[in-house]
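Meet today's protein:

…
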Amino acid sequence: MFEFLKKNTDFDDMEAEIMTEENKIVVKQPPVLFEKTQAIIKEFEQIVGAPLITYWNNPRGSVCDNDVLVFHELLEHIGEHDKLFLMIKSDGGTGKASLRIMNLIRQYCKELVVVVPLECASAATMMAIGANEIRMGPMAYLSAVDTSLTHDLSPIDRDNNRVSVSLDELSRSVKLWQNENKEEGSNPYKQLFEYVHPLVIGAVDRAESLSIMLCNDILSHHVKDGSKALNIATILNSKYPSHGYPILLKEAQSIGLNAVLMEKKQHSLLLKLNELYSEMGQKATTDFDDLNSHGNEILNILETNDMQIYYQQDKDWFYRTEERRWITMNENSTWLKNEYVKDQVIKSVFHIA
């Protein structure tokens, strides 16, 4: 039986010790580098002459609906502006959250510039196309936004977890089957249904239509030509052979996006910022034994001048051998906020119901 001893409740250097009869295990805590990230944000804002909001996801974080409330807190903090910069570094997430985020941001600025130093994929690409201009660094890329989903009836993997299914994968499977089975009256779905439930196929088809609609709605904030917006949305959803296909600067320009190369100084500052966020978002898992561990990883970080809000895991993991999967217990994960008030850093919990 493990006994948790909290040694310090300060968010920066809080530690917990796990006591057993034979040893003492210090639970890993990632650093919070608010003062360092703030210095870079202020320098970037001086160069561009406009406020900057940063949106950074750990590889295990994602674009989600809770981010909308965090963006609202940051936007209320800085107020309305003619021009606003948004840094995005994310592997994606929920497309519907992207629509809500961009709809919210566009209410606080007349012109939006998205700056992309590295990956800006899937649902993050949906966010980026809502900007009047996309500034991309030499390592930056967008991606296809074709929707995949994990359904309650999806197939399971070797670890007994549900896997995501995309319409593109299903369509290619059907096409391949048809090319190899030319006899009249043959039906690929009869065999496909043995592996993928028909309700999953219907749900994925519906999700694909939703993805095009989301992109079209996001583009409408600045692309007034409806046919152009629909063409960009369709290309992003169906042109590319892989969901992770990297759309580089030239390709982004060729499909009609207003994408330009980012200036070197801006790019250098964002890479420094990403390095600090990566240090904050380092893997912070403490293994107690083969079946028990604890996670304190920071997954999402959003920040602007004088305010930083981030989501941090705080939960136990237990491997249930009979089910061949990890389950979570003692879930205390939460959003935390740092802000400057009269030159003092105030730390608090940011409550999201």
User: Anything to note?
Assistant: The two ends are 32 Å apart (CA to CA). The longest helix spans residues 198-219. The longest strand covers residues 81-89.
